[in-house]
Amino acid sequence: MEKHEVTTFIAVDLSAAFDTVDHVILTDVLDKQYGLSSTSLGWIDTYLRPRHCRLIVNSALSSARPVECSQG
Q1: Residues 70, 45: contact at Cβ < 8 Å?
Q2: Which of 28, 67, 65 is nearest to 44 (CA)?
Q3: What span, in angstroms and rounded, lies between the C-alpha atoms of 24 and 45?
Q4: Cα separation, 56 vs 47, whole angstroms
Q5: What is the rounded CA–CA span in Å between residue 15 and residue 33?
Q6: Furthest C-alpha separation in the chain
Q7: In which element (H, E) is residue 52 found?
Q8: What is the pTM of this model?
Q9: Are the beta carbons of 66 and 51 closer than 8 angstroms?
Q10: For residue 16, how many C-alpha atoms fall within 13 Å in the half-sphere facing its CB?
Q11: pLDDT tens digits, residue range 8-19?
Q12: Which partner for 62 in 8, 19, 49, 55 could form a disulfide, CB atoms 3.0-4.6 Å apart?
């Protein structure tokens, strides 16, 4: 007996998902629809905000540079 099976494959690229969503809308939805605590919302807001870093080398402080790859 021959089996005729169907296989479905779905691939979704979410690599830029948080770069394209409005962060204010996201935190508002997480607050109003999911009831996240203010501590959790603050953590998420801080994570989504642009980051900068400075280095001290031989007692000299560098200028602030944007962190391009905050996820690792």
Answers
A1: no
A2: 28
A3: 8
A4: 24
A5: 24
A6: 78
A7: strand 52-53
A8: 0.52
A9: yes
A10: 2
A11: 888 877 667 767
A12: 55
Enter the tokens of residue 11: 């691939």
Q: Which residue carries 């790859």 as its tokens?
A: 69
* Residues 57-72: b if buried by 16+ CB within 10 A, e if exposed: eeeeeeeeeeeeeeee
In the block, tokens 């690229």 appear at 13
23-71 pLDDT, tens digit each: 889 889 999 999 989 999 998 888 888 888 999 999 999 999 998 776 6
Q: Which residue has the tokens 């501590």?
A: 39
Report domain extents, the chain. 1-72
